[in-house]
Amino acid sequence: MPLKTSSRGAIPPFIVMDVLRAANERQAAGGRVYHLEVGQPGTGAPSVVVEAIRNAVGRGRMGYTDAMGIPPLRRRIARHYLDTYGVEVDPARVAVTTGSSGAFLLGFLSAFDVGDRVAVASPGYPAYRNILTALGVEVVEILTSQAEGFRLTPELLDDAPGPLDGIVLASPANPTGTVLGREELAALVSYCAGAGIRLVSDEIYHGILYGRQAHSALELTGDAVVINSFSKYYSMTGWRLGWMVLPEEMVRPVECLAQNFFISPPTLSQVAAVQVFEATAELDAHVARYARNRSRILGTLPRVGIRGWGPADGAFYVYADISGLTDDSEAFCRRMLAESGIATTPGTDFDPQRGRGYLRISFAGSEEEVSGAMDALEEWLEPRA
Ligand SMILES: Cc1ncc(COP(=O)(O)O)c(C=O)c1O
Which of 101, 235, 252, 269 has minimal CB crowding within 10 Å? Predict the structure, then answer.
């Protein structure tokens, strides 16, 4: 008889990682694959970061750091809030983490107890609900609609059954690219303040915007847990570095949790990341490329019979409504990969209930990849359009 395993580990897979495995298998067998499934920049870290690493390697011990991160990086992150949002942040409130994924674990653990009720938008980033579930927190899915631009609103939260202890919000959002305006964010912040709800604001896609402005929850409140990362705009995905700006009362609990769970975030990555804030010209050029990829995709979809999608005002995804083509997005994605080599993520990863009619197309890769994929998509789908 196999020994017992914990029920906390019995969470759903991250489907996109399963798609990635299938795509890699096809590639290893010599097949052409267009990688529009994973949400990571097709570029490496900016040159100043690579240079900083060259200089740092071999010098110094690269031992553990403070559990909350090295002081120069915490100070530089705090300054980023002044430069970008006009908000003064005490560096003592900044916790450097192992990606934003590490921040979710520490943030959720210190904000919520077992049995607390936390709302997440659906469609939404699947790890929110899966991490919360693993931690024994009850996830309350709030269904947002395509007609309303997949916006989370106080009205939708009001309709949720029972009281809430927390809300996890992302703007720009994955997979829809929905960006909340200042007033919309302010309405949610004051709803949370009025109801005693802890807001967790995932701001990982800030900087990747198409004609819109993103606002930090820090512009409006000191009570939110604000999470960000070097993985997306900063193009440092594999360096596994992110951060949180914490309300005062959560600083020491997060520090104690971080000491025990991780000891410290990756040292080499922290040293490099101090420099990345100076690389805006290089990083903005990536955003300009994402914008061209986005136009290419949005120009192609109607020609192949796909006429609805999320706003795609930020991040690097199109959440496409394929309900006119299929009612089983997982089978559709498998067939598309097998027959045309295009790897995408089925909507069920982001919305277990309605995702069978959607798929997510990532345009974080190169223009050649996206353009080749759109040609292949037209060839594959045009006869059906
Ligand atoms: C909305 C959102 N938050 C967080 C993450 C996790 O990123 P990381 O752990 O690399 O910072 C992702 C990754 O795709 C994401 O889409």
Answer: 252
Return d(Cα 264, Cα 360) in angstroms, integer. 34
Banded pLDDT at 340 (limits 50, 70, 90): very high
Q: What is the pTM of this model?
A: 0.95
Q: How confident is the model at residue 385 (pLDDT cuts 50, 70, 90)?
A: low
Separation of 243 CA from ligand 1 center, angstroms? 12
Give the residue-averaged pLDDT of 333-338.
Answer: 92
Dihedral sign, Cα of residue 185, residue 188, residue 194, residue 196 = negative
Phi, then psi, of 80 in degrees rounded to 5: -55, -35
**Who lines ligand 1 at CB under 6 A?**
39, 99-101, 125, 170, 174, 202, 204, 229, 231, 237, 242
Taking the C-alpha atoms of residue 279 and residue 178, their distance in angstroms, rounded to an integer, is 26
Crossing angle of the two packed helices 71-85 and 267-276, in degrees rounded to 10: 30
From the CA of 100, how far away is ligand 1's center (Å)? 6
Separation between Cα atoms, residue 40 and residue 239, nearest integer Å: 12
Q: At what angle do helices 267-276 and 47-56 cross, to 10 degrees?
A: 140
In this structure, are residues 210 and 342 in contact, taking their beta carbons and an 8 Å threshold? no
HSE (side-chain half, CA atoms, 13 Å) at 322: 29
Q: Tell me the per-residue pLDDT of 28-46, one tens digit each, with 9 for 90 and over.
A: 999 899 999 989 999 999 9
Q: Distance between CA atoms of 274 and 69, rounded to whole angstroms?
A: 11
How confident is the model over 321-334, as a mean pLDDT? 94
Bond before 247 cis per omega within 30 degrees: no
**Ligand 1 atom, smallest distance to 240 CA:** 10
Q: What is the dihedral of CA 36, 39, 44, 45, to 10 degrees?
A: 160
